[in-house]
Design a protein that fits this description.
Strand content: 15-25%
Number of domains: 2
Shape: elongated
Strand order of the largest sheet: 1-2-3
Distance between the termini: 10 Å
Largest sheet: 3 strands, mixed
Number of helices: 5
Low-confidence stretches: none
Structural class: alpha+beta
Order of helices and strands: HEHEEHEEHH
Radius of gyration: 16 Å
Mean pLDDT: 88
Number of strands: 5
């Protein structure tokens, strides 16, 4: 499935959680984990909205705001879910979802499997992995 199509699906499945223009910039390998976490967040704190989902320095950044009407306990659970998601994605290839680790090509960090690391090294940058998709 095309990258933009996956993002459209997420926006369609969770329209109530995206109240503003969403910054969404990460690889497809993390999408399933992200969707699972959004479903859990919706159950715990339905008033939560997502501000931004992106990759930065090879790791996932997931920024969400809980509603003031959500209990402190709910907000804490949401924060723990987000921390768990970010930690989980630190061990998953951003490109394919296979096990991965933080790697550097051309001065840029990404979490990738060995196959995508080798593609990036051969191509001279991480863009070669996106072209391969």
């Amino acid at each position: 499935m095309e990258k933009q199509e996956k993002r459209r699906q997420i926006m369609k499945e969770f329209p109530d959680m995206f109240r503003q223009s969403l910054g969404f910039d990460c690889g497809d390998g993390w999408i399933d984990c992200i969707c699972e976490t959004i479903r859990k967040i919706r159950e715990i704190a339905p008033g939560t909205w997502i501000n931004q989902i992106k990759e930065k320095f090879g790791s996932l950044r997931f920024d969400a705001t809980t509603s003031m009407s959500d209990s402190g306990e709910s907000r804490n659970k949401v924060n723990r879910l987000i921390e768990r998601l970010q930690d989980q994605c630190d061990k998953i290839c951003e490109f394919c979802g296979e096990p991965g680790e933080l790697r550097n090509v051309g001065g840029w960090d990404k979490t990738s499997c060995l196959r995508h690391f080798e593609i990036a090294e051969d191509g001279g940058n991480w863009g070669a992995c996106r072209e391969e998709e």
